[in-house]
Design goal:
The chain is an alpha/beta fold. The structure holds (2R,3S,4s,5R,6S)-2,3,4,5,6-pentahydroxycyclohexanone. (2R,3S,4s,5R,6S)-2,3,4,5,6-pentahydroxycyclohexanone (ISE) binds next to helix 7.
């Protein structure tokens, strides 16, 4: 599709992220408008559609994707609903931006990978938005530029103030550390080969039955070692940090966002309350890039291969989390479509 006309987007799933993407598509970025919204919550979806001219509410995402006035789909439903929606979109040859994770496990991600290959061209971009964050982009450029030499280690911290009541221990890996899996593969430009999860004595703030925080180790193809602290209930704010330790120097991001204030004999700053605020710019750039590329008839950004590879690392991580010890990542061969 190559068009001067605004891209007409169906948003599937209108919870926290989906509703934020509707707002972004309608009011923040250019070149798109929301013509369909779909959610099993009929009231929520009707309220959203009523506020947008020319937008229809659906409780069945398949009907939204079949609508005449839909050119592309943004999937922000919970992970278990992704596979069916992605296969439907591929069947209709619709361009897709799919929130992470691509699907909740490697087998279903592989089925999506195979379906896109049968189609013969890329249609899906996966919503690993950190690749669009200014600081992550600076770190990527620094590592690619080579002046620091080869990256030997990455230290990463991923802290959330609290998780919703339905959040499970597995989701610390599948839903949270999946970002560091993608960031590691992208920054170091190689696959993760093994995962080991360590569990310190849980915080007294951790929900019953959830070991929180956890310490996750990745090994990579070139022999780099990467650690990730995942803390789901740190209590004080949302913080994501990454430090690359290279042969000739180190580089660190995520320490401060916004002014450091000196007053009353002390310095202070603000910590974002959640990822919607911390990564607001990254989401804006991601969705704008997707809309622009789609209008040019292109698909750019993280691919189904990236989503599948992250799902395979998640699977190894969840096994290590459950059974302990080091678990190797099992990956199929990378198909030519994604090389
Ligand atoms: C959430 O789903 C996200 O994607 C956030 O970026 C992440 O920080 C959080 O831990 C996840 O639950």
């Amino acid at each position: 599709m190559s068009s001067q006309r605004a891209l007409r987007v169906a948003v599937v799933g209108t919870g926290k992220m989906g509703a934020d993407h509707v707002r972004r598509l309608q009011h923040v970025i250019s070149g798109a408008r929301v013509t369909a919204v779909a959610d099993i919550d009929a009231e929520r979806v009707r309220t959203l559609a009523d506020a947008i001219e020319g937008c229809t509410a659906y409780t069945d995402p398949m009907l939204a994707m079949a609508a005449q006035d839909v050119d592309a789909v943004l999937i922000a439903a919970p992970g278990p609903a992704h596979e069916a929606a992605l296969l439907e979109a591929l069947g209709r040859d619709l361009p897709v931006l799919c929130e992470k994770p691509l699907t909740p496990d490697a087998a279903s991600a592989l089925r999506v990978l195979e379906a896109e290959q049968r189609l013969g061209h890329r249609r899906i971009q996966v919503g690993f938005m950190r690749r669009y964050d200014t600081e992550y982009l600076q770190l990527k450029r620094l590592l690619d530029g080579g002046e620091l030499g080869r990256a030997l280690m990455l230290h990463q911290r991923h802290r959330n103030p609290a998780m919703p009541a339905w959040f499970t221990e597995e989701m610390l890996i599948n839903d949270s550390v999946v970002h560091e899996m993608d960031v590691t593969r992208w920054l170091l430009d190689q696959e993760i080969t093994a995962v080991t999860v360590h569990k310190p004595t849980p915080s007294s703030q951790a929900p019953a039955g959830m070991s929180d925080p956890q310490f996750v180790l990745f090994e990579t193809e070139s022999g780099a070692v990467v650690d990730v602290e995942i803390f789901g209930h740190c209590g004080y704010g949302y913080q994501v940090q990454a430090e690359a330790v290279c042969e000739r120097g180190t580089a660190r991001i995520g320490d401060e966002h916004g002014p450091r204030v000196n007053a009353d004999g002390r310095w202070s700053g603000r910590i974002a309350p959640d990822y919607v605020e911390r990564f607001e710019d990254a989401y804006d750039r991601e969705v704008q890039a997707w809309v622009d590329a789609t209008r040019r008839g292109e698909i750019t950004g993280p691919s189904v291969w990236d989503g599948y590879a992250a799902a395979a690392v998640c699977e190894a991580g969840v096994r290590s989390q459950r059974d302990g010890g080091r678990v190797e990542v099992e990956l199929t061969e990378r198909p030519p479509l994604y090389r």
